[in-house]
Amino acid sequence: MKIIIINGPNLNLLGKREPEVYGSTTFDSYFAELQSKFSELQLEYYQSNIEGELIDKIQEVGFSYDGIILNAAAYTHTSVGLGDVVKAINTPVVEVHISNTHKREDFRHVSYISSGAKGVILGFGLKSYELAIRSFL
Ligand code: CA2
Fold first, then answer.
1. Cα 113 to the center of its chain, rounded Å
2. Which of 63, 87, 92, 131 has the most CB atoms at less than 10 Å from its CB?
3. Could you say which of 65, 75, 97, 129 is catalytic?
4. Could you confirm whether 97 is annotated as catalytic?
5. Given 22, 45, 112, 129, the catalytic residue
6. Which residues approach ligand 1 with their CB closer than 6 A?
7. What residue spans define the domains of the chain?
8. pLDDT at 48
9. 30-34: long-range contacts (C-beta < 8 A, 24 or more apart)?
10. How far is the CA of 52 from the centre of ligand 1 (A)?
11. 112 is catalytic
């Protein structure tokens, strides 16, 4: 089973900046843990700070992979383009957030991704990604 985690802008800073909000683990080390925990899966990871690159990657994998786990970060709340591509592909998308966006500022309560997603998991810290993987199993 082929599953890709796609992270949006600034998530490359995880574990390096604002540990009080986003924790002190880097995504690379968390991803290595996920790969050993789910060694039966073909797990991939992609991150970009650029909206068009995220759209290109979703188009590239969205007709052949079994699952996409998408944390579009700030683009979640702004990007019609990402919302459209999630609806245009065949591969199911699980939307993930580290924080509980509904406990935060009002602008984070809106998601352009959710209406095209299979489901949404948020607020469980990095564990949200593991729960998303489990949702595909
Ligand atoms: O909770 C999440 O996963 C978010 O998608 C994170 C985004 C935020 O804009 C969304 O509203 C909720 C922000 C990601 C920024 O990540 C950083 C990590 C470390 C230091 C600074 C930013």
1. 10
2. 92
3. 97
4. yes
5. 22
6. 10-11, 13-14, 17-18, 22, 71, 73-74, 76, 97-99, 101, 108
7. 2-136
8. 98
9. 30/126, 30/129, 31/5, 34/5, 34/129, 34/130, 34/133
10. 18
11. no
**Which atom number of ligand 1 is nearest to the Cα of residue 11?**
16
pLDDT per residue, tens digit, the chain (137 aa), is: 999 999 999 999 999 988 887 888 999 999 999 999 999 999 999 999 999 999 999 999 999 999 999 999 999 999 999 999 999 999 999 999 999 999 999 999 999 999 999 999 999 999 999 999 999 99
Burial of 66 (0-12, 13-18, 19+ CB in 10 A): middle
- List the beta bridge partners of residue 15: none
CA of 10 to the centre of ligand 1 (A): 7
Q: Which residue has the tokens 């650029």?
A: 50
Identify the pLDDT of residue 18.
86
